[in-house]
């Protein structure tokens, strides 16, 4: 299983609309990726390890797939549409990491 993590850096003054991201953007992602995407999770950054310091990321979105090939096949036809929606909820420039999942929550 792989996890595609989209990490949104949290510089001062960053704009991020969680309501839009969690409902409209992730709904778009679900529709585009279909059954290839096994699960979706969203994290909201609240702090870093240092006391009274900003979280390094304002948000993180995680998408789970059976394989890298399955992700690539489902994402490629919709990449432009999904990426074009970013300006509707943020001005942060996301970073993407694809990881092999070694230990997952139950049910995945």
Keywords:
108 residues; alpha+beta; Alpha-Beta Plaits; four-stranded antiparallel beta sheet; 28% helix; globular
Detailed description of the structure:
The structure is a single chain. The protein is α+β, with helices and mostly antiparallel strands. The protein has a single domain (2-60, 70-100), classed as Alpha-Beta Plaits. The chain is 28% helix and 29% strand. It contains 3 helices and 4 strands. It has a 4-stranded antiparallel sheet. The model has no long low-confidence stretch (mean pLDDT 95). This is EthD family reductase. Pfam families: EthD.
How much beta, percentage-wise?
Answer: 25-35%
The order of strands across the largest sheet is 2-3-1-4
Number of strands: 4
- The assigned structural class equals alpha+beta
Q: What pattern of helices and strands is seen along the backbone? A: EHEEHHE
The CATH architecture category equals: 2-Layer Sandwich
Shape: globular
What's the alpha carbon Rg, rounded to whole Å? 14 Å
Number of helices: 3
Main pleated-sheet profile: 4 strands, antiparallel
User: What is the name of the CATH class?
Assistant: Alpha Beta
Oligomeric nature of the chains: single chain
User: Into which percent range does the helicity of residues fall?
Assistant: 25-40%
Average residue pLDDT: 95
CATH topology: Alpha-Beta Plaits
Question: Which stretches are poorly predicted, pLDDT < 50 over at least 5 residues?
Answer: none
How far do the termini sit from each other? 9 Å
Indicate how many domains the architecture comprises: 1
Domain EthD: 18-92
InterPro entries: Dimeric_a/b-barrel, EthD_dom
Pfam family, one: EthD
Organism: Pseudomonas benzenivorans
């Amino acid at each position: 299983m792989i996890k595609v993590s989209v990490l949104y850096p949290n510089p001062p003054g960053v704009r991020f609309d969680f309501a839009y991201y969690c409902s409209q953007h992730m709904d778009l992602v679900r529709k585009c990726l279909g059954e290839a995407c096994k699960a979706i999770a969203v994290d909201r950054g609240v702090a870093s390890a240092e006391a009274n310091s900003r979280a390094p990321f304002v948000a993180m979105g995680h998408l789970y797939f059976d394989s890298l090939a399955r992700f690539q096949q489902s994402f490629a036809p919709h990449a432009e549409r999904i990426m074009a929606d970013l300006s509707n909820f943020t001005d942060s420039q996301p970073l993407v990491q694809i990881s092999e999942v070694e230990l997952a929550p139950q049910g995945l």
